[in-house]
Predict the structure.
Amino acid sequence: MTNAFSLSYLKTIGIMNNNPTGRGFGHPVDLTVGRDGRIFVLNRHAGLARVGVCTLEEEYLGEFGSYGHKDGQFWLPTAIAIDSRERLYVADEYHHNITVFDSSGEFIGNWGEHGAGNGQINGPSGLVVDSEDNVFVVDQKNNRVHKFTADGEHLLQWGEQGDGDGQFNLPWGITLDSEGNVYVADWRNDRIQKFTPEGRFLDAFSESGDHDGQFHRPAKPAVDSEGYIYVADWGNERVQVLGPDGNFLLKLRGQATVSKWAQEFLDVNPDESLTRNQSNLIPDLPPHLNTPYLVSSQTEPYFWGPASVNLDGEGRLYVTESSRHRIQVYQK
């Protein structure tokens, strides 16, 4: 049977920025796309944590949030999501809370209580908002998932430590399908689990490994309107696509080209451009260096640290690469 599913590479957005403001990213870990097409990119870089705002056409619009412990600041941000009113939610695994901004980046408030009790959080690592603006939060170190209202009122929770159905071991990313079902990247168990909106276990996909359809530390899933499941297979330095039934369809290693921002930098820095042109950016590596991490770290077009996958309203797939400070964009 021929697999007709395919993804086309569109472009790369990004460049490293070691400053707290200005165009570029610093170890981005997640993003979300607003209805107007603005891309909100969550940067985790120590000392430079912030949300950068840009467009698919690579217009840089600014940033908000900063590194610290005050209102509207982050220390170890992990995830970002947007609701129907264009409010943005940012999870911070150090502060154990969720910070809320409006679409212009103005601080609205935060909520979340640190602990292991009912409704408490220990290291939130994933966020997604449903059609009623309820917020699902992955409670990483308590090995469970919470559902809150937009204002932080606790509604329900499920999960515990383990490797059985409905159990987790350091879960990370989360997403919803068009029916409101919940998909959780069960990071250390190397699988994706699927639940009803009320937390009833439905299915689990994959197992540990580096073969097609296997995962090694999956970071975040996304599900499109047809039920196809996209997974940032972080430990294998790739993205995998599963069918609605969980069967393997496709894998991507990355096809990055030079972004507009990077090209503009090279144009005004000829010495950097010359060095780049002389470098072997797609080398043949010896067998003892043939691991996903080492290959990706030496091969510029490949994903290196794919921390999340996200879809916009047009079905475009955004792969956020933490280690190369960029986003690769694909279209089904």
